[in-house]
Amino acid sequence: MMRKIPEGIDIAVIGAGSAGCSAALPAAVAGLRVLIIEREQAADVGRKVCGNMLGSDGLAPAAEHVTPPNGAEVAARPKSGTFYTRDGKTGVALPADAVVLNRLVFGQRLLADAVAAGAGLLDSCSCAGWSDRESTRVRLRFSDGSEGDLTARIIIDASGFRSVLAREGGTTHDDPITRTEAAVAYREIVSLPDPIDERAGGFAVLAPPGAGHGYAWVFPMGGRLANVGIGTTLASVAGSLREAYNDFVAGRPELRGAERISGGAGMVPARRPLASLVGDGFMVVGDAGCQTSPLHGGGITPSVLAGVKAGEQAVRAISNGETSARALWEYGTQFMRTIGAAYAAHEPLKDLIYSLSNGDLVFLCTQIAQSEKLIHAIQRGSFLPGVGEALRRLAAFTRRPRLVAKIIGTGKVMASVRRHYEDYPDSPSGLESWVGREEFIRRSRRRL
Fold this sequence. Notes:
There is one protein chain. By secondary structure, this protein is α/β, with parallel strands linked by helices. The chain is 36% helix and 23% strand. Strands 1, 2, 8, 9, 10, 11, 17 and 18 form an 8-stranded mixed β-sheet that branches. A 7-stranded mixed β-sheet has the order 6-5-13-14-15-12-16. Helix 6 runs antiparallel to helix 10 and helix 10 runs antiparallel to helix 11 (431-445). The protein is globular and about 65 Å long. The model has no long low-confidence stretch (mean pLDDT 91).
């Protein structure tokens, strides 16, 4: 849309994905001069390699600014799903109240809403890094190779997993992502010979061949369409992930005769959120801030919720005439004490899952499937929802003492992680000691 780099920008949002558009909306509605910078063409905004699934009411807290997906944006509404353990044969049915998105349609609508609210768009343009960190000036590079600088009062980085600004000192704490904390996936949209039972949902298979620390998935998209993919951590990729995908498809009778419509690869963080989500005149949201669940890599819901919170905080900071890290800090505190606490607690649970034998995993999943309270507790970052429920569940484990010990140990660590994130500091001055405590808790996990 716009080719000239404008001046006098209040908020520059790097990335027009779900996090970026959600951040731009409240700022544009408030009358601030907002510019979205997007490396793809505008017509391609919303194309992303993803399972595209989220809870049906997960975006409700952001409804003031982001209308929940509806109409053509919703590909399917599954009410259940099946989780298969490592052997790919033993399945456990799990309840689900979910939405599978038509991600392109949803992404295009979010962008249209942001532009309609007054945000500008500079597409086919990427952020090459800081030009001058102190004055919040960034270097932009157009698809034709030309470059220029953009200065804004606040930069909101929603550029995804490969964020340049966060890595180059954007936030108040350096928090590098390791290969074990990065997930890579290959996914295709396919057409099957027969329609899929949408309400029965799809399924996921833990640790299929070639993805030892990940999973493969098949999610319905309405009619005969399905979202099929495989992902694992970057450190555990064994050979070609696309070949692992082909082997998975060939081995599943449900996918016999599948015809490829589109496909591609992508990367997402699979770890706790970055320890700091802000800096002077800078905020990070979505994948760029590691705001995804380590259990499954899902990040649509937290990206939207975090984006809205970041946009609202940016509006308050500018209205108060102060854009320092301290002035933006409340956004990070709100995220860490809620979604961040739950997702950080998913890390030790993920460690437990991949450490179990197939037999123990089947047994554990069966117990989880029998308790809706336990499913909700896990979503909130806890393992056992209460003493009574814990005793009832653990009573079934009397013949598996080692598994009981692992579960109790993991539950304690998860509780410790949650409490720690719920105690996230109120200002940047408390971050150093908070990070030190977090590192101690993570070291204790290795002794489980």
